Automatic annotation (TrEMBL), chains A, B:
Belongs to the D-glutamate cyclase family. The keyword Lyase applies. Transmembrane segments: none annotated. It comes from Staphylococcus marylandisciuri. It is an enzyme of class 4 (lyase). InterPro entries: D-Glu_cyclase (IPR009906), Putative_hydro-lyase (IPR038021), UPF0317 (IPR016938). This is Putative hydro-lyase N9R04_01395. The lineage of its organism: Bacteria, Bacillati, Bacillota, Bacilli, Bacillales.
Length: 261, 261
């Protein structure tokens, strides 16, 4: 059985048993993959409130009970301590380790959040015949820190980060219509057109990822990006934050076709 | 100036200064009115998580910073300690007082939640020419405790309560289409038709409110009801919960036409 047609629980089992490493892109095709943020309980209310207040950049898919390693909807039999192939451990905002499991760090006081990832709506864009340039060019999406502030919550605040996909204006309108159905994975664009209007000076120099070609008559289309909750969580410098490593997503039990708002 | 055309801040000022008492129905026409739940911070994460997990019965409009008496979106200059004309104070699940303000009870550790109320979508139903029977009959909507369990969160759990509006099936379909746009105020119906399917034995004997006439060929249409978060908060018996008294809503600064998801 190929990993692309494997079920999510099989993928997670392979990762848990350290038989599978690396990126999860293309695995368990059709199933939602999620960004992961794990925090001590004392920050959980403010972080959940941050997600509620910033749904386009921090689209919350599921949150575990305090101290619980599984998720009521997106992973009933999952174990968040082991089911991501590479974690990032930050102390006071500094990266201190990149382990394959976090069994030792996960206490009764930790709370785990699953946040929507743009893989899901990119599949919908491709199915509608819309261009997704960085997939065509086979590299990571370009991401930019904007001058738009997120709505703060407790210790969590900071600028909004966006990802960019260039297309013709009529395609951008169609993409807005399509992504309106995907509120749990960033929803409609944050901005279409002039990058300077949201504080981006040079599209050729993204803050994360790689630049893409913008063809004649195309406009840049900017969506909220899952890097935002991570960067906001790190900027708050709590004594401990655990995230997935980029591309090493949590594979959920929910089909993309089951999503929707 | 009539209270119906007064702005929300004016209504709240009159209530704050104890120049206005009683129900807020019909006041500040066009503006969203909200259910209120105020809890100690130690329960706030689990209650917010409960709202996230039960959006149809607990549609969260806004949540204040811990210890803060105003709301970032729905009432920037409001004071939740004084701006509701009658509160209900519960200790360990028992009603102990119904004051006109909660200045004495509101400490730095209290967290205030605003939850959507069905007034908003009833206006939309009426504008679409759909029947809202209890308004025609000029009394409170009938509400029923179902056998459907809410998704639990920490100490918060319990059955889902619904409100019921009878209409023809083709009207029910139109009402579903319309309320799909009002996810922040209960959204689409929980159920249409046979009451027994959701554990309701007798439509003539609602658990709260008053029964309505069901005309020939009409089916009962059930929506999630804002009584649910209150009853769930009380059933958990925390040492202190403050809510609005029924009908004595918090009048927000947001227009119904500005809502939407």
């Amino acid at each position: 059985m190929s990993l692309s047609s494997a079920k999510p629980d099989k993928i997670r089992e392979l990762i848990r048993n350290e038989k599978l490493f690396g990126h999860t892109s293309g695995m368990a095709k059709g199933y939602v993959q999620a960004n992961v943020v794990i925090l001590p309980e004392k920050y959980a209310f403010d972080f959940l409130k941050f997600c509620f207040r910033n749904p386009k950049t921090c689209p919350l898919l599921d949150v575990a009970e305090t101290g619980n390693a599984s998720f009521p909807i997106y992973g009933k039999h999952a174990d968040i301590r082991t089911d991501v192939s590479q974690y990032r451990v930050y102390r006071h905002g500094e990266l201190v380790a990149t382990p394959n499991n976090v069994r030792d760090l996960f206490t009764d006081e930790m709370v785990s959040f699953l946040i929507g990832c743009s893989f899901t709506f990119e599949h919908a864009l491709l199915e509608a015949g819309l261009p997704v340039r960085h997939i065509e060019e086979q590299h990571n999406v370009p991401m930019y820190v904007t001058n738009i502030q997120t709505r703060p919550s407790g210790i969590f605040h900071g600028p909004l980060t966006v990802s960019m996909r260039p297309m013709l204006m009529q395609e951008a309108i169609k993409a807005t219509e399509i992504t309106a159905r995907y509120k749990q994975v960033h929803g409609t664009p944050i901005h279409i057109g002039d990058p300077a209007a949201i504080g981006i000076n040079d599209l050729d120099r993204p803050d994360f990822g790689e630049a893409v070609q913008i063809k004649e008559n195309e406009v840049p289309v900017f969506w909220g990006c899952g890097v935002t909750p991570q960067s906001v969580a790190l900027a708050a410098k709590p004594e401990l934050v655990i995230t997935h490593a980029p591309g090493h997503m949590f594979v959920t039990d929910v089909l993309e076709s089951q999503m929707g708002d």
